[in-house]
Amino acid sequence: MKLTMLGTGNAMVTQCYNTCFILSRENQYFLVDGGGGNGLLKQLKAAEINWKDIRRIFLTHRHIDHLPGVIWMVRLITQAMSRGEYEGEAEIYAHRELTKTIREISELLLQKKQTDFIGKRLHLIPVEDGEEKEILGQKTVFFDIRSTKTKQFGFTMYLEDGGKLTCCGDEPFQECEESYARGSKWLLHEAFCLYSQADRFKPYEKHHSTVKDACCLAERLGVANLVLYHTEDQNIRRRKELYTQEGARYFSGNLYVPEDLESFAL
User: Fold this and answer.
1) Quick check: 182 and 222 in contact, CB under 8 A?
2) pTM (2 d.p.)
């Protein structure tokens, strides 16, 4: 299993792509979020991933830095289906209200000959809090993070080695997530900025965390590997260095501050 960060930035970044990533195993792919638009296609190409090989997508929530890239995937997949250039079926998972949003936007923006494939070969699959699916051959449980802004889901994937990977979405941790996140081998968590720069970036006003917050949480939960994403980009040249330095004071496990397109073996 491999994790590839297609984008690592928050909504307003211009020096990196919005946060989205892909899990892969034996030429199978699971795309999580789409970033802010068709820049997703550039990131997939740079990562040497053929979008036609993507069969499963998960959209955490409807914000503009996560949703539009998924609509581009709907367009590409259904267009290829109409031309006989896409084999098999595709599935997009999201909470129930969001599957309706994906369909509505697709019907507004795409051609009927494309949207006719929705429900036939491209399936919008609503997931409920605590619902289990099999993704990439692994047990995967989706959960409601109890967002303070808009309904949002995360997930936990149980890995072959007995560990688990947990994605907490892009908002501060809520106690309802603890049963999923505790003891995770890999925890993916947002970190809007350094704690030392909180006065400058004001993460709490935007319902986000700092590096210190995420690292203290991971330490408390007994996490082995912490991946920080959804960051500001004003420190982009030294982001990895600065975030790692601050985080090391609060987290004793392995701390990763990835650049766009960086990959990790899980």
Assistant:
1) yes
2) 0.97
Write down how long the chain is: 266
Give the residue among 241, 207, 246, 211 at the shortest CA–CA distance from 229.
211
CA 178 to chain centre: 19
pLDDT computed for residue 208 by the predictor: 97
The top-level CATH class assigned to 2-265 is alpha beta
Q: Which residues contact 191 (CB under 8 A, 6 or more apart)?
A: 208, 209, 210, 211, 213, 214, 228, 229, 230, 231, 243
- pLDDT classification of 148: cutoffs 50, 70, 90: confident
Q: What is the 3-state secondary structure (H, E, C) of the chain?
A: CEEEEEECECCCCCCCCECEEEEEECCEEEEECCCCCCHHHHHHHHCCCCHHHEEEEECCCCCCCCCHHHHHHHHHHHHHHHCCCCCCCEEEEEEHHHHHHHHHHHHHHCCHHHHCCECCCEEEEEECCCCEEEECCEEEEEEECCCCCCCCEEEEEECCCCCEEEECCCCCCCHHHHHHHCCCCEEEEECCECHHHHHHHCCHHHCCCEHHHHHHHHHHHCCCEEEEECECCCCCCCHHHHHHHHHHCCCCCEEECCCCCCEEEC
